[in-house]
Known about the structure:
The structure is a homodimer.
Chain A: H1 42-50, H2 54-65, H3 69-82, E1 90-96, H4 102-115, E2 120-125, H5 129-132, H6 136-142, H7 144-147, E3 152-155, H8 163-179, E4 184-189, H9 195-200, E5 205-210, H10 215-219, E6 231-234, H11 242-255, E7 269-272, H12 281-297, H13 300-326, H14 329-343, H15 349-363
Parallel strand pairs in A: 1-4, 1-5, 2-3, 2-4, 5-6, 6-7
Helix pairs in contact in A: 1-3, 2-8, 4-12, 14-15
Amino acid sequence: MPKKPEWIPENSGDEFSSSTIEGVLNKNITSSKKIKSKSLTIDDYYSGIIDGNRAIIAQAISIIESNSDKHYLLAQSLLQKLIPSTGKSIRIGITGAPGAGKSTFIDTFGSFLIKNGHKVAVLAIDPSSSLSKGSILGDKTRMEVLSRENGAFIRPSPSGSTLGGVARKTRETILILEASGFDTIIIETIGVGQSEITVRSMVDFFVLILLPGEGDELQGIKKGTVELADVLIINKDDGDNLNNAKFTKSQYELAIHYIQQATEGWNSKVITTSAIENKGISEVYDLMNQFIEHTKSSNIFDKRRNSQLLNWLYSNIEDRIKSHFYNDSEVQNKLSKFESEIIQGQISVMAAVDELLNTYFTNK
Amino acid sequence: MPKKPEWIPENSGDEFSSSTIEGVLNKNITSSKKIKSKSLTIDDYYSGIIDGNRAIIAQAISIIESNSDKHYLLAQSLLQKLIPSTGKSIRIGITGAPGAGKSTFIDTFGSFLIKNGHKVAVLAIDPSSSLSKGSILGDKTRMEVLSRENGAFIRPSPSGSTLGGVARKTRETILILEASGFDTIIIETIGVGQSEITVRSMVDFFVLILLPGEGDELQGIKKGTVELADVLIINKDDGDNLNNAKFTKSQYELAIHYIQQATEGWNSKVITTSAIENKGISEVYDLMNQFIEHTKSSNIFDKRRNSQLLNWLYSNIEDRIKSHFYNDSEVQNKLSKFESEIIQGQISVMAAVDELLNTYFTNK
Lengths: 364, 364
């Protein structure tokens, strides 16, 4: 049974309604908890989003983030209507260990993008945010300059019990923002568990932010992350770090020679920046534009977009059929028995599989 | 409808029978196509395998490799009976690009193992073997010394239309061989598609054989393969290659510093060998023993074995429920329609998912 989202008052009845839209206009940092809304129809949402009305955008995202069945259906109808207006942004993923300076980088880079005429939205995927709670104020402080820009929109991680749930909400939020005219969407992740792979699967361009220092172990990043990145940024190339940054750059340049390309036909690059001193930021922008031009002209860009869509389709289908199977109570009973029997060498794997499948399909 | 395996004569009736057991005793290279068998009961198979009767072992493997339903059931009952006698070998995976000298290495290393009192079986996973056909003679020539050893057993790749099918047959063949007393099982793969990952998922110790030279591109190995290996062997450290081998060794030693450990708590090693000159072979043996001792004492060995078993269980379950879903004809029709609608931006992914799942579960 899906839980009611916290922001709907107890006994709010069947209507998706409460008092007034207020206090969200001109606020770039928007939390679902702060939203009050009057009854809006799908058409109201649709035109509000297309017009770029921030209050309505924020509310639509809250509906996407809601765990109630009713909001799920509302969100899906809305998205279905918006689909033709989506897909036109550049989607950027940014990861890096805590302390590498992701927020400062996004603050500086995002502001640079705005000065260059872009409309920028920042989303976060943080599978641990349900533990830390209320990262909203955190985000405000973290991206001081960007959060004051009118062209910017910053949204903290949706809460969710699974990364899959958070991923769905983020993907659908991207669609809302694209339909609203944001042309650059930055998705930040702190890289817990599989979150980097999840973010990679929804972006065009993936950035790994590293500290001057030696090797991944010291960086606190998971091995394998480097292979996801189209550009490695050695940040904090300032103060006492200058030599260290240069050295780290050369080490990673060597390392990427041995690992898999993140994007077909694109050799990943290493760049040094100082987000605090505004150093290397325009180089990152140039590199990103090169990347986009290159991948668009080779058709890799569209190929990846299409395969991301189909992967998303298939992974959703498969998550659902698996969860239907594993939620079957007879399957559950047998499965836990078989697991220990398999490990103790009492039953063969295929015998267990055969019996489990029989159980499941005769139940259906 | 599963096809009858080629080695069963047309109109062979319902009995699993033909003329006599012949021509397989004392032959280490055994092909299912050459086998003639009289009717054997499960008990005959069981005791023959436990006694190490090579003719019966070869026949049992042929039953596992058969694609008929009847043989599937026979094989599964037999395996269920054998399970308590399995699991006691060391399972070694060996990969490398064509030309790196895998066969020569296995020939030399396998013979070394036999001289040190081991009983060695060599299996191959070659997803492309159904194309090249008849690799049996090939294997015989490829491993000249080993194929003459009484303690050795060499079996070419089972044929199969999917890597999953080949993987099941190989896993089950490992069980038969373990029950027969082989204490070292070597699984060779040429590394087409996902086959290296598949082999990694069924072995304790994984070896990548490389040529003296520079970088993975020149080696013709897929990037990412290095991360699977517990030991990298720079083979052909002989003749004009001596300096080159040393250089390649140092390059890979640097590279593995940046990539994921294949085995928790074990830093992958790089060794130079010359299989032709019998150089470095005992070092590989020592290293393997170190690895086994280390992983057994830290319990990583058993942990991996158990998780391999459970992964095998879950991946089989999921393959089957997915194939049940994707074989549904209504699902198939809608899916191909939705795929193009999604790419053309006419339907949202979640709307497609919802409708497909509805279709499927109301059919059940």
